[in-house]
Design goal:
Oligomer: single chain
Helix content: 55-70%
Largest sheet: 2 strands, antiparallel
Strand content: under 5%
Strand order of the largest sheet: 1-2
Radius of gyration: 23 Å
Number of strands: 2
Shape: flat
Number of helices: 7
């Protein structure tokens, strides 16, 4: 279960012994590339070393097992939730029809029910974005700061702007 496992039966179901290895694996599963995942896991790097160090860490069999398990478990959870929700499809559609047809229900509820039925039967309508529309202005200050921080991490990983010395992994 760790970075230096001797147990060949590690299946990835338990967190890795190294907290940084565990964070690295989770970052990979979230979709980060090896370099940004390595830096985000807390490793200190210089130049372009995050990309190569992250690549080396991806060859660690325990990290590979953990990533595979995390990816599989996420897919399993999504499938289980979807299957559970689908068991209630008829009741949900019946409820939507009932609310939509109830003259005493608030108009917003009736419209939402009708929209839900249309979406279910015909798919969601295509939403067009006008050219030149600025979605950045609609973000809150916290959302803007989060976006900018994420972009900085991506840029640092691509440009090799990491400014600290590489440590062992």
């Amino acid at each position: 279960m760790g970075e230096c496992m001797t147990d060949q039966d590690y299946d990835g179901s338990e967190p890795l012994d190294s907290a940084r290895h565990e964070r690295f694996a989770q970052n990979i599963v979230k979709g980060l590339a090896a370099g940004p995942a390595y830096t985000a896991a807390g490793y200190r790097v210089t130049g372009n070393s995050a990309k190569s160090a992250g690549g080396r860490l991806l060859t660690n069999v325990d990290v590979q097992a953990r990533i595979a398990w995390l990816q599989g478990s996420a897919a399993d959870r999504i499938t289980a939730i979807r299957d559970l929700a689908r068991q209630h499809t008829k009741a949900a559609v019946d409820t939507l029809v009932s609310v939509m047809g109830n003259a005493d229900a608030p108009a917003a509820a009736r419209v939402a029910a009708a929209q839900g039925l249309l979406d279910r039967g015909w798919g969601k309508a295509t939403q067009y974005v006008q050219e030149g529309e600025n979605r950045y202005d609609a973000l809150s200050l916290t959302e803007r700061q989060t976006l900018l921080a994420a972009l900085d991490l991506i840029a640092a990983g691509e440009d090799g702007d990491e400014d600290e010395t590489a440590t062992r992994h």
